[in-house]
Amino acid sequence: MTDIGFTQSRPAQLRRLGHVLYAAGLRMQKGMAEYVKDGSSPDQVLVLEHNPVFTLGRNATRSDIHVTDAFLESRGVEVFETDRGGQVTYHGPGQIVVYPVCNLKGGREDVGRLVRGLEEAMIRCAADFGVTADRLPGFPGVWVDTPRGLEKLGALGIHLNRWITTHGIAFNVAPDLAHFRWITPCGITDKGVCSLKSLLGDACPTWDEAADSLQRHLGDCLGLDLLPVPAHSASISALTWRRGPSGPEVLVMLRTPGHGLWWSSVTGMVEPGETPEAAARRELMEEAGLSGNLLPLDFSHSFWMDPAVLGLPPGPPRFNTETCFHVEVDPASEVRLALDEHSEYRWCSPAEARALMMWEGSREAVRRLERLLPSLNPAP
């Protein structure tokens, strides 16, 4: 097959973003599509890992998900409708998601070549680790012939708008395959889903090892000269809580109009030479006048900094990576707001805090705290 991908190389920026919440990933793609649309800016290749989500393509219906909303909520799985092609699929930890946001104008107006190039990159990545994968006519993605029958190793779904591509591929390194049993993956009932882990066992590469391979082959197969671009900045959030008379209470603060006018936990930027933990302690004291037992939430996430929302000057895309902590404070501690940043505060239940918070990263931090609370605050 000779009509695979593109051979004439052109520059593109590679952003290895780590964990990205799905809603943030949708905004990220929209922002990057706007950035590349006039053809003067380099294409953007976003390599990342999502929280557990089911995404519905244009041909999917809710009936393709075989469990209730309550069941999904109890398992921490969200559902999103999208504008990509295809039906329902799963994204989650252990899976490499790649969004090539590319402008195909100027000689690349061939979606078939793009699709085959994406498939070829996944096939070559699998081969790097001793797995033979291939295409299956009529079924996008890449497949492996296993003792259980044909199983999908990598999924593909593209959206094209005025020759700008969004969405992309999902390559299974070591996700929890049980999630695929809760759906009809891509509308296919007679074939399974596999991963490098299910095929290789202990010989499975790490996520980073597989991502290194996949992005190298993407550059070759799509004719992209990939330039790695790190995140521009780092921030922290310190989710502050106390033991209240009716249960745990979370501190939320309302930002002033000049700082966004939304409810949030303690947040702030990591200064040069500062560790995230030191930044969290500093911001906790500066924003709320508090100190306490600061512990990691084992959660960090990256996001695109939307200039229209954050009041940033125009320029190249800005990305930030936020490291999240939680901190228990003495119930008798007095909150002393920095009034140039926040106008009021509330102590409220975790559920109330999530309802007030604007950003999905803040809400996810509260969910993770809720899962920790039984061990942090055992019943008497």
TrEMBL record:
Its EC number is 2.3.1.181. Its main location: cytoplasm. CDD domains: LipB, NUDIX_DHNTPase_like. It is found in: Cytoplasm. The keyword Transferase applies. It catalyses: octanoyl-[ACP] + L-lysyl-[protein] = N(6)-octanoyl-L-lysyl-[protein] + holo-[ACP] + H(+). One of its GO terms (biological process) is protein lipoylation. Pathway: Protein modification; protein lipoylation via endogenous pathway; protein N(6)-(lipoyl)lysine from octanoyl-[acyl-carrier-protein]: step 1/2. Substrate binds at residues 84-91, 155-157, 168-170. One of its GO terms (molecular function) is lipoyl(octanoyl) transferase activity. It comes from the Bacteria. Keywords: Acyltransferase, Cytoplasm, Hydrolase, Transferase. GO terms for cellular component: cytoplasm. It is an enzyme of class 2 (transferase). Residues 231-371 form the Nudix hydrolase domain. The active site is at 186 (acyl-thioester intermediate). The record marks 152 as: Lowers pKa of active site Cys. In the reaction, the free carboxyl group of octanoic acid is attached via an amide linkage to the epsilon-amino group of a specific lysine residue of lipoyl domains of lipoate-dependent enzymes. Catalyzes the transfer of endogenously produced octanoic acid from octanoyl-acyl-carrier-protein onto the lipoyl domains of lipoate-dependent enzymes. Lipoyl-ACP can also act as a substrate although octanoyl-ACP is likely to be the physiological substrate. This is Octanoyltransferase. The lineage of its organism: Bacteria, Pseudomonadati, Acidobacteriota, Holophagae, Holophagales. The gene is lipB.
